[in-house]
Structure formats: C-alpha cells, structure tokens
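tl;dr need the bound structure. longer version: we got a ligand (adenosine-5'-diphosphate) that a collaborator sent over and nobodys looked at where it sits. i said id run it. heres the input, straight from their email, havent touched it
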Amino acid sequence: MSRLVMKFGGTSVADLERIRRVGRLVAAEVAAGHQVAVVVSAMSGKTNELVAWTDGAGAAAQGLEPSDDEYDVVVASGEQVTAGLLAMTLRNMGLPARSWMGWQIPIVADDAHGRARIDDVPPENLVAAMDSGQVAVIAGFQGVTRDGRIATLGRGGSDTSAVAIAAAVSAIRCDIYTDVDGVYTTDPRIESKARKLSKISYEEMLEMASLGAKVLQTRSVELAMAKNVPLRVLSSFVEPGEAPGQGTIVCDEEEIMEKRIVSGVAYSRDEAKITLY
Ligand code: ADP
Ligand code: ASP
Ligand code: MG
C-alpha cells in the first residue's frame, strides 16, 4: 500500500470549519487506498502571536534571542493545538487517527534553536502506526534535540517537516496544501498576470524559494531534491472531488518535457538598489 504525506499550512487550518475540510481531504486519500501522514502548521496568525508573547515575557530584555531554547518551547505549541484538533476531527469522522509531536516520533534536530536542522527521522514508530491503518497527524515545525529539548525549524518550517517525514516513510509524494493553487511564475498575490506552472524542477524551485518565494521553505526544497521526494503544491480550499486541482509538481528536471528558459520571478520586500555615479 502506498504512503502519502499531506501538509496543511496556517490558513488551511485557520478555524474549525477549515480543519473539517482538511479532514475531508484526508478521508478522500484514505478512501483512495493511501496510508496517510498529515503534517500541520499552527492556525494562521498563531505563531506570530506566540513570538510576540516571547517578546512580552522579556526575552529581549533578558538578552535572550529567538535562538533560545525556551523561545522554541513557546512557539512550537501552536502546531500541537492543530495536530490535536485535526486528530479529533478525523476520529469524529470515523477514521482512526492520532497526533504525534516531534519528540514522540522522534524528529531529531540539532540545537540551533529557532532555526534547527533535522538530523534524523527514524521511521519505525510512524510506519507501525500507518501500517495499522491509523492516520498519523504530525505537528510540523518542531523537532527534539539529542538532549531532549524542543527545537523549531525556522519560519515556514512545516514544509521541511513534511518532506523529512515523506523521505523517512518512503512516501510516493509529499502534497503541500496551501492558500494558492500551485507555484506561479511570481507571487500571484502581488502580480495578477502571474501564470501557474504545472511542473517545475527542484533546481528552479530552489532558486525561487531562496530568492523569497515563500510558498515553500528553501530547506524543504533542498531536502526534497536530496532525497528525491516528488512534491505537489496545491490549494486546500476545495472539496474532495471538486475541479481537479492538480497544482504544481516539483520534480527532477528529466521529468519535465518542455524546458523553459525563465520559470519565474521572485522578489524581496526588504531590499533596495542604489546606483552611485
Ligand atoms: P502556508 O501557510 O500554507 O505555508 P505560505 O503563506 O507560507 O502558506 O505560502 C503561500 C504564499 O506564498 C501564497 O499565499 C503566496 O502569496 C506566496 N507566494 C510567493 N511566491 C509565490 C509563487 N511564486 N507562487 C505561489 N505562491 C507564492
Ligand atoms: N507555524 C510556523 C510559522 O508560522 C511554521 C509553518 O507555518 O510552516 O512559521
Ligand atoms: Mg509556509
């Protein structure tokens, strides 16, 4: 039986109605015969709120940086809430499901708090749960250090959690559900003439992400390329079976028949160019 990883970002799980819709999308993949692991982000706005709380608690005044281990304890909590809510929702729909925090799998990360990298994801626990027919609902963005502390993976890090899980459980694909229906030639919220790409290579996607296209965290693309995990970026704002939103496939260059010279344009809001004569 094939394994599939589905990842849902903050706007896709922003309230209970959206979480129920995520439940329906998960149920459709289970009905299609997949063993499913779902990776979730915090509900939209939650991580920003948690970050502000760490400032309010005096992290800055005490000279503590976002790299502090207690910062990670606070900001990782948003994903725990969503994972529990989605697991409950799935159970209410009659699907066996359970939530998994980073330390329970474990997702082993280094101790660069606030921007940790994943070192290892032993697959045994997840695979055993998935083989038993349970949907694994995983809190994204978080791992555990070798000395047992919670570590977060940098903003947008749930994408990287999802790819790491997909590689660990040998998933056929990692589907990144978000609030746009694929990867565009540039940010469709900024440029209305942006065109959706049906396929893009890992290399091109890596370049776009590292130049600021936040639709995928740069590290998630690096990892997908290194582990050869096919990615699909697609909208979560559809019901199962609605207009076949195929999204954008991110894959090896060889699998893309028609080569483009320029795939897209990325931008950075906080840079300016000054020319002196
Ligand atoms: P999520 O919460 O699902 O992780 P993000 O906000 O991190 O979603 O990423 C999705 C956003 O990425 C879109 O709303 C869009 O504004 C932005 N984006 C930037 N560049 C692109 C691009 N080239 N194609 C699609 N979306 C892009
Ligand atoms: N919740 C985290 C963030 O807002 C991680 C993620 O959404 O991928 O950065
Ligand atoms: Mg994101």
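gonna send this back to them w/ a short note. Residues 147 and 213 are 34 Å apart (CA to CA).
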